[in-house]
Amino acid sequence: MGSTSSLYAAIDLGSNSFHMLVVREVAGSIQTLTRIKRKVRLAAGLNSENALSNEAMERGWQCLRLFAERLQDIPPSQIRVVATATLRLAVNAGDFIAKAQEILGCPVQVISGEEEARLIYQGVAHTTGGADQRLVVDIGGASTELVTGTGAQTTSLFSLSMGCVTWLERYFCRS
């Protein structure tokens, strides 16, 4: 698969789905080698006390085992794993994260809503290019980010604690 020093991975542990991107740097440009998205619905496992169910955690860990198979040739220092709203909220997030780090062999960073918004904007600005003004809205499983900016620079960013999974569970899945 090439020189390990040129391989990088980014993993997003979202509230609805987990994403992994593996790339290789070649002569200053980026080649995508692997892109995996799995719907794990982690937020659906939050109860009224914000504890993640064992079933939801197991869905997440099972996905991470799949990701780990693809990370074996990448140094841990070249893998970034971020966790978002559900793991910001969950009272037992530490249990999930400890096992996730064991499975992946690298640290998992729970990022703030503002950092999540900034990273979302950065990704959109990088892929669309240009110096135009833009509004970026990302509706996730447990949070929604709104970001304005010009070119690659954000001008304002917000993260709201409302997402498609948490609102579905709260307002439409009454037992």
UniProtKB/TrEMBL annotation:
One Pfam family name is: Ppx-GppA
- What gene codes for this chain? gppA_1
Q: What is the lineage of its organism?
A: Bacteria, Pseudomonadati, Pseudomonadota, Gammaproteobacteria, Enterobacterales
Under InterPro entries, the record lists:
ATPase_NBD, GppA/Ppx_hydrolase, Ppx_GppA_N
Q: Which GO terms describe its biological process?
A: nucleobase-containing small molecule interconversion
Q: Which residues form the Ppx/GppA phosphatase N-terminal domain?
A: 21-172
Indicate what this protein is called per its UniProt record.
Guanosine pentaphosphate phosphohydrolase
In short, the EC number is 3.6.1.40
Keyword annotations from UniProtKB, A to Z? Hydrolase
Indicate the enzyme's highest-level EC class. Answer: hydrolase
A GO molecular-function annotation? guanosine-5'-triphosphate,3'-diphosphate diphosphatase activity
Species of provenance: Escherichia coli
